[in-house]
Amino acid sequence: MSPTGSTEALAGRRKLLGLAAAGAGAGLLLAPGIHLIEIARAATPAVSSAVRWGLLIDTTRCASGCTACVDACNTENGLDPRPSPTSAQWIRKVEIKEVRTGREASVPVMCQHCAEPPCVDVCPTGASFKRADGIVLVDRHSCIGCRYCVMACPYKARSFVHEPVTAQKPDVPRGKGCVEGCTMCVHRVDRGDTPACVEACTKAGHHAMLFGDLNDPASTISQRIRTVATRTLRADLRLDPGVRYQGL
Fold this sequence. Notes:
By secondary structure, the chain is of the alpha+beta class. 29% of the residues lie in helices and 17% in strands. The protein is built from eight helices and ten strands.
């Protein structure tokens, strides 16, 4: 997205939210069935299936013990910086070891943004949905907290919010009783930026995470995938994840 397009999108969002706030201040009510998320969607740049956003993670560059991506995700999305067993965690580091060779690797695991997401298939209300550009999200207005998606996800990438949420970020609405997971920093993507985890990994000097359009053969991520061996987690499930791994 060009800087001009990003500015126009931001201006449109502010205008619509301003109108909503003005209406509330004047005592006006939203029509039945109209949610604030729909106002936000109206200000979001149009997405297209011509684009499919994805990540490529080079495990040979991912440093064991480094939590730059996890810390950045927590900060960007208003998550607990010291996660407990019951708190939400959208990205986690998993340490793996190859039995035959003894090689160890540190692997970031998050929502894999599948082309065939099982979380969407089992959701009874349509709260779990996939955007045209491949990003899998949760509509908190529709989520009833049944946690079917948590059970269906083979990557353990969904979290249930058990406690009231305070100090929320304006771009990342959260709420007790809802399920959530990695959004690929959709609010940043829609304004032309990269996900926070990718930015943090680059700043840390590891350059282990690459974000881009998997549908664009000229994109850096597509060129890298064509030239190096990559794989997806649980490829046997044929979910076609948007997150690819190098060096596994």
